[in-house]
Amino acid sequence: YNEARRSFADAKKTHSQLKKTLSAKNKSAAIIHHDNIDKQHANATIFANAMSWELNSDKPDNAKLKEYAKKLYNATVIAETEHQALIRDVN
Fold this sequence. Notes:
Layout: H1 2-21, H2 24-56, H3 62-90
Helix pairs in contact: 1-2, 2-3
């Protein structure tokens, strides 16, 4: 959980820095990708927090933990796919 949160915080920081370095021409092409990546980072944070709350509950529900883990994984994969599309579109 902590590693996932650190990883997403680092990814979001890097993503924000990259946004600032794009040329005006590339910024317009990248807006949708940036929005989608930001959305997936937010989703991943929500699922990581939900996992933490579940783990800290008196009786953690394994089914819920698996569901949150799957959603966290999916958000990560979608963000990475979107990042690859961003790189492809601005180069």
